[in-house]
């Protein structure tokens, strides 16, 4: 076991969370009680599949029984195209909702956040792309996830696909943290195998990237960046997520009816996002923007595939964090370097067991595309600069080469040079 790391005088921490976070089977039945003080008109934002589930019907019936006027917008679409945001804002207008309930996966919860933003502040949404540009509070959001992975129910982030942009684009602001998060694992039971695997891999990347992000002393006298880097308050949450995912991801994928595995993944998604919502993610998320745009593979598949290589790149400065993760992944005791190596092996094994491919070649990337991906990834400075080591274009190219070949040793050599 790793010796506990004491809190020192230089330790810092930032957590930004909803006013209440509820977790547990049946917790969705609390939503009417939570929204009652916020007003009497509710807009539920979801997609057509989820609108037709027992969970959604129960939610609508419960709210109506509590006297709420409820309108359901069920036009949500995966990866959140920008025109859907406009459509949802149009549908919300005449209803003048007091509260927005986002019910579904990350796409529906992000849509709820976008509607809440545009009901409170003038559009277009693009004027808020980037960080800390939302000028003030938004319409209250209650976020109810039905997938286990994005953690959008607690994060200050929304992500959209804007046809005018080559890559997906985000709005990041503490004002986007939902007012309440209600995580009822039973809602994830019907989640398809691929969504379970990819969103679970995303949660693993959130946990391990936030754990191994760069350490910076916040400038307490000025506006904080949304992603402040690895910090003490998120660490235990991230480690709890690592442990839960190590034990449960493969079971949730291969035995979809396993209620314990589903609950464990819902918990992991939540705690990983509590950590990354302030600590941030880094290199895998930066590189996935480029890989995902070119290959049309999902966010979770990309960040999961890249994760072992990203950990390899930073391992010489994140040994403490990776040894803490080793304990949570039941990696046997060994000298530090060997145990860190075995920990990254174990991370890769968890991902492979869930069906995440090992290499970029496996998902159809041509080796000749890697240089362009390195150039493009360098542009996501907010993420690249949050990494554990400086990563210029050459380091990113080494990371991509290693991930294409499935050879972690190559990225270790680049790390020593960086
Ligand atoms: N805001 C954030 O902090 C954050 C973080 C990571 C990712 N994201 C974004 O989240 C989106 C991905 O979200 P996702 O992975 O949750 O998937 P999703 O919301 O895109 O949903 C994928 C599909 O799964 C279906 N689905 C969802 N729950 C189901 C259930 N319980 N049973 C059956 N089908 C179900 C949906 O109907 C949809 O067809 C991306 O746009 C990504 O960029 C946001
Ligand atoms: Fe992610």
Set down the secondary structure blueprint:
Blueprint: E1 20-23, H1 31-35, E2 41-47, H2 48-51, H3 54-65, E3 69-76, H4 82-92, E4 99-104, H5 106-120, E5 130-131, E6 141-145, E7 157-160, E8 169-172, E9 180-183, H6 193-211, H7 232-254, H8 259-279, H9 283-295, H10 299-314, H11 319-328, H12 336-353, H13 370-378, H14 381-384, H15 393-405, H16 408-417
Parallel strand pairs: 1-9, 2-3, 2-4, 4-6, 5-8, 6-9
Antiparallel strand pairs: 7-8
Helix pairs in contact: 4-5, 6-7, 6-8, 6-10, 7-8, 7-12, 9-10, 9-13, 10-12, 10-15, 10-16, 11-12, 13-15, 15-16
Bound molecules: nicotinamide-adenine-dinucleotide and fe (ii) ion (FE2).
Question: How does this structure look, described?
Answer:
This protein is of the alpha/beta class. Helix content is 49%, strand content 11%. It has 16 helices and nine strands. The chain has helices at 31-35, 48-51, 54-65, 82-92, 106-120, 193-211, 232-254, 259-279, 283-295, 299-314, 319-328, 336-353, 370-378, 381-384, 393-405, 408-417; strands spanning 20-23, 41-47, 69-76, 99-104, 130-131, 141-145, 157-160, 169-172, 180-183. The strands form two sheets. It has a six-stranded parallel β-sheet, sandwiched between helices. Strands 5-8-7 form a three-stranded mixed β-sheet. A hairpin with an 8-residue loop joins strand 7 and strand 8. The mean pLDDT is 96. The structure holds nicotinamide-adenine-dinucleotide and fe (ii) ion. Nicotinamide-adenine-dinucleotide binds next to helix 2, helix 5, strand 7, helix 6 and helix 10.
């Amino acid at each position: 076991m790793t010796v506990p790391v004491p809190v020192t005088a230089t330790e810092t921490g930032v957590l930004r969370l909803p006013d209440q976070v509820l977790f547990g089977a049946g917790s969705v039945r609390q939503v009417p009680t939570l929204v009652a003080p916020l007003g009497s008109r509710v807009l539920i934002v979801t997609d057509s599949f989820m609108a037709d589930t027992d969970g959604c019907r129960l939610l609508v019936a419960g709210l109506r029984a509590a006297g709420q006027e409820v309108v359901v917008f069920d036009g949500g679409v995966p990866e959140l195209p920008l025109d859907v945001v406009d459509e949802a804002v149009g549908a919300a207008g005449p209803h003048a909702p007091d509260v927005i309930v986002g019910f579904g996966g990350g796409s529906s919860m992000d849509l709820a956040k976008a509607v809440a933003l545009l009901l409170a502040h003038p559009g277009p949404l693009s004027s808020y792309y980037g960080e800390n540009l939302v000028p003030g509070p938004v319409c209250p959001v209650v976020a109810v996830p039905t997938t286990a992975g994005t953690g959008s129910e607690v994060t200050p982030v929304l992500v959209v696909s804007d046809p005018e942009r080559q890559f997906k684009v985000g709005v990041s602001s503490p004002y986007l943290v939902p007012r309440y998060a209600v995580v009822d694992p039973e809602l994830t039971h019907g989640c398809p195998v691929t969504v379970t695997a990819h969103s679970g891999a995303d949660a693993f990347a959130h946990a391990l990237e936030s754990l191994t992000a760069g350490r910076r002393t916040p400038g307490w006298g000025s506006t904080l960046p949304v992603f402040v880097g690895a910090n003490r308050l998120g660490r235990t949450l991230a480690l709890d997520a690592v442990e839960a995912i190590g034990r449960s991801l493969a079971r949730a994928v291969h035995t979809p009816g396993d209620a314990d595995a589903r609950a464990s993944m819902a918990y992991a998604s939540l705690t990983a996002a509590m950590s990354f919502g302030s600590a941030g993610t880094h290199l895998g998320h930066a590189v996935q923007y480029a890989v995902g745009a070119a290959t049309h593979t999902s966010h979770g598949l990309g960040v999961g595939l890249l994760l072992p290589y990203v950990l390899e790149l930073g391992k010489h400065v994140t040994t403490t964090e990776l040894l803490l993760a080793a304990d949570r992944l039941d990696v046997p005791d060994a000298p530090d370097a060997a145990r860190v190596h075995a920990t990254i092996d174990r991370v890769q094994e968890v991902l492979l067991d869930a069906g995440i491919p090992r290499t970029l070649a496996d998902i159809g990337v041509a080796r000749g595309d890697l240089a362009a991906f390195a150039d493009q990834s360098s542009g996501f400075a907010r993420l690249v600069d949050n990494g554990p080591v400086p990563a210029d274009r050459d380091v990113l190219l080494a990371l991509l080469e290693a991930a294409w070949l499935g050879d972690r040793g190559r990225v270790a050599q680049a790390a020593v040079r960086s």
